[in-house]
Amino acid sequence: MAADDLILLGKIVATHGIRGQLRVVPYSGQFDTFFAVDSLLVKDASARLVKHDLASAAVHGKKLLVTFTGYGDINQVLHLVGCELYIGRDQLPEPEDDEYYWHDLIGLTVVTAGGELLGSLESIIETGSNDVYVVKSAGREYLIPALAEVVTSIDLEAKVMTVTPFEGLLDL
Fold first, then answer.
1. Global confidence as pTM
2. What mean pLDDT comes out for the span 123-141?
3. Cβ pair 13, 23 in contact under 8 A
């Protein structure tokens, strides 16, 4: 599987109890993907990807508890602490119309409707009402709200996001 086909979901940060459960911090802060898949790819210390079938996944505070099939004892999973968890892109459901996965948006070139190059979408800030796209260029950073009236088009094939900023947005 090519690196572009892998989605990094989170990291195993500790064991939990003595029955082989693992504490996972999801990088997106979302747990839904863990409940929608049957298996995860674990990147071990030697950077090898090993597929593990999920026996269970449960929310535990701001973390997730994961149990892999065939691992029922803490001693069997200690070596997994510190490993990152991935899934294949093909394991994700197709997004709805006008919805995008963050990993597809990161790296897009952002331009205004008038053709001005703003930079590259570097990260996304999740807020209560709407996401905010962090767009960076040489020496400049823009915070673009992910609103339909601001983000006028996204072309994943061309890797371009077009925005129509409201007055003063680019002056902040």
1. 0.70
2. 91
3. yes
Which pLDDT tens digit goes with each residue over 85-125? 999 888 887 888 888 888 889 999 999 999 999 999 999 99
First to last CA, the chain: 42
> Residue 119: what residue type?
G
Tokens standing for residue 131: 């996401």
Strand partners, 117: 111
Look up residue 116 and give its two tokens.
């001005």
* Domains of the chain with CATH codes: 3-90 (2.40.30.60), 102-171 (2.30.30.240)
At 116, is the secondary structure helix, strand, or coil? coil
**Rounded CA separation 46/70 (Å):** 22
Distance between CA atoms of 172 and 122, rounded to whole angstroms? 18
d(CA 97, CA 94): 9
**Token pair of 78 as six digits:** 């200690």
